[in-house]
Write a structure and sequence with these properties.
alpha+beta, membrane, transmembrane helix, about 675 residues, about 35% helix, 3 domains, transmembrane, 28 strands
């Protein structure tokens, strides 16, 4: 199978799962995606800091007062002016409250609104930072294939090419699908196993199952008229189920229905005497219709034949320890002379609006550890070959199935659908049913898998032979483990699931192309229509090797975040200039300036008469070059103060017990 990782489109595209606006997506490689995710987190942090600074600016101005105030007021104003982040602001305000807790200034009540505001802003942007991951999570893990190697399969006109390339290719597809179906599906339930992830947009195509329905064939052919089983995919959407990325008006839906029932043997079998075999009745013939190209047998309606008794019981030199399985197929809608199948069924088995296939399972070549009540695997005869085992009651059990298809433009509710019929009849109606180029491209892509390859359930079983049987999982050296009475239904369901997996895999591989260049060159063609070309660049798959981001989410984060950063840089100078020019709120403007860290430092030194200062209302005040400022007086370690340099003196400081150290101590 083709590895598609190198064929994923990176860049901007629209995921129509979420609509034109919300579905705008940017896909990046894993490393680039990690870089962008980190940038987003940092940018949200920067935006949060900017918003906090804006809030501090607003609160500082709102709480500013010309009246004489106490220390709590001035400390709050200083914290609002100089806190770089919400977390640091909350911490400093809490420290102010704690320091004043016993001094009767009601600090908690006065500072609680500021603490709450800072805490809410901090929490909000922490949450926003977490939810920025949604920008990459929201689009999911779906990616768009570039369609570089896109091609539609066409059966080679040269039979030699088909036999040497076509058959091996489809055999590999069917075998891989069967392995996936047997691994992922539990025949004892209708659910997927946990270890069943795929790169398709859906791990498995959905379907419904109905038991005990009416047999789809003539009553005299059915073993039990009310024991049939029906599977119905419902209307599978080309976008949501097959992954063809398209707006609603360009989508199509596809439906397949399979109905199967065991056939009776009575009146349709004959025990044939082989003269050269000493007169033993060791062959049973089945008459459900003649095989195409077998006219020379001169046996009307002979479908196949098989040994009547278990080979082990005959004492032959070759011991068979495996099931046998045969399939014959008939495609409705074709005259017998042009029949692409290998079987011309009895009139009672024919449907002009359906395809029919028979599956003959030969259980008589194995031994069963317990009696089997299943109508196809029925085994109740005691074996003389091995004590304690049982043999099949009949040489073969026969299951007949009918398949039908339907296509709709858009949803089935829109009413523009073909009848539920054969693919041959639907193919002739594609042009009228799908007038839009994109719809026609998707519809023809789906149906090319049935017209050029015949990937129906019967074709899948024919490719797998006995490997299609789930019962083989419990077969060892010709001895079959216990089988339930509904084993044939479980087998049919596995065939159905395998065929749906083949359909999924083959449809997706039209966009990826096969893994082999020889296959691509000899078996696939690039679509020539506009709709086909569009279908090539519209296939979605799932991949964990890429990261997709919501374009809307990125725009909102960078747009709103950038606005906050811009405002945090521009609001203060713009407001100050506006108020300065109109001489408004002078005290509030100057208090904001004076509470800055560098301005508080200026005020302390200037109060001591140190320095010739300029820029007293700016962000950074300056002195004349070379001027010396105050030193910290540390004689009282619990209450340091500033002191002029000319008041400083040298004395021995032995507070730490170091008699030899000399330090500059300011008295």
């Amino acid at each position: 199978m083709q590895a598609f990782e190198d064929g994923v489109y990176t860049g901007s595209w629209t995921n129509w799962d979420r609509g034109r606006v919300r579905g705008a997506t940017i896909t990046l490689g894993k490393k680039n995606g990690q870089v962008l995710t980190a940038v987003l987190a940092l940018f949200v942090t920067a935006a949060g800091t900017s918003f906090f600074r804006l809030a501090c600016f607003a609160m500082h101005r709102a709480l500013s007062s010309r009246e004489p105030q106490d220390a709590v007021y001035h400390q709050r104003q200083a914290v609002l002016r100089n806190s770089a982040t919400g977390a640091s602001g909350v911490w400093k305000l809490v420290q102010v409250v704690w320091s004043w807790r016993f001094r009767g200034q009601n600090a908690l009540a006065r500072l609680f609104p500021s603490i709450l505001c800072a805490a809410l802003i901090t929490s909000a942007f922490v949450v926003a930072g977490i939810f920025t991951s949604r920008i990459s999570v929201a689009p999911g893990d779906k990616v768009l294939l570039a369609g570089v190697n896109c091609g539609i399969y066409y059966r080679p006109a040269d039979d030699a090419v088909f036999l040497t390339l076509g058959l091996p290719y489809w055999s590999s597809v069917i075998t891989a699908s069967a392995g996936h179906a047997q691994q992922c599906f539990d025949v004892n339930s209708s659910s997927l196993s946990q270890n069943c992830a795929t790169y398709y947009v859906k791990d498995a195509l959905p379907y419904s199952k109905e038991l005990d329905v009416e047999c789809p064939f003539a009553e005299e052919l059915c073993l039990n008229n009310g024991s049939a089983i029906r599977f119905d995919t419902g209307h599978l959407n080309s976008h949501s189920d097959f992954g063809v990325n398209a707006p609603p008006e360009d989508r199509v839906s596809y439906r397949q229905v399979l109905t199967c029932a065991p056939l009776t043997r009575e009146g349709f079998t004959n025990d044939r005497v082989i003269p050269e075999d000493a007169g033993k009745n060791n062959e049973t013939q089945y008459f459900y219709g003649s095989l195409t190209g077998q006219e020379k047998l001169n046996t009307t309606n002979l479908t196949w034949w098989s040994p009547r008794e278990p080979i082990q019981e005959e004492g032959l030199s070759i011991l068979r320890t495996e099931y046998g399985l045969s399939v014959v197929r008939h495609y409705g809608g074709y005259p017998d002379s042009e029949q692409p199948g290998n079987w011309l069924p009895l009139p009672e088995l024919r449907h002009s609006d359906a395809n029919t296939f028979l599956v003959a399972i030969e259980p008589h070549t194995v031994q069963f550890v317990q009696p089997v009540d299943d109508p196809v695997f029925s085994a109740h005869r005691r074996s003389t070959f091995s004590t304690g085992t049982y043999l099949a009651d009949y040489t073969e059990g026969v299951v007949a199935c009918r398949t039908q298809h339907q296509m709709c433009a858009g949803d089935a509710a829109d009413g523009n659908c073909t009848p539920l019929t054969t693919q041959a009849r639907i193919l002739s109606a594609l042009n009228t049913t799908f007038p839009r180029a994109a719809q026609y491209g998707s519809a023809s892509s789906i149906f090319s898998l049935f017209t050029h390859v015949n990937l129906e359930v019967g074709d899948t079983i024919a490719g797998l032979k006995a490997a299609a049987l789930h019962a083989r999982r419990y077969l060892d050296s010709g001895v079959q483990g216990p089988l339930p009475p509904d084993q044939w239904q479980r087998e049919v369901e596995l065939w159905w699931r395998t065929a749906l997996t083949v359909l999924q895999m083959s449809f997706t591989e039209q966009a990826t192309g096969p893994g082999s260049e020889e296959y691509a060159r000899s078996l696939f063609r690039r679509p020539e229509t506009a709709g086909g070309a569009k279908r090539c660049v519209s296939q979605m798959v799932r991949s964990a090797e890429y990261t997709s981001f919501s374009t809307l989410g990125l725009g909102l984060v960078f747009g709103l975040g950038g606005l906050l950063v811009l405002l945090s840089w521009s609001v203060e100078p713009l407001v100050n200039r506006f108020q300065k020019n109109r001489r408004k709120n002078v005290y509030r403007r100057l208090e904001w300036a004076a509470n800055g860290t560098l301005q508080l430092q200026r005020l302390a030194h200037e109060e001591l008469g140190l320095g010739s200062w300029g820029g007293g209302a700016e962000l950074v005040p300056t002195t004349q070059p070379g001027q010396k400022l105050a030193l910290v007086r540390v004689a009282d370690a619990k209450h340091p103060t500033l002191v002029s340099p000319d008041q400083a003196s040298w004395e021995e400081d032995d507070d730490d017990g170091d008699k030899e150290s000399q330090r500059s101590v300011i008295r």
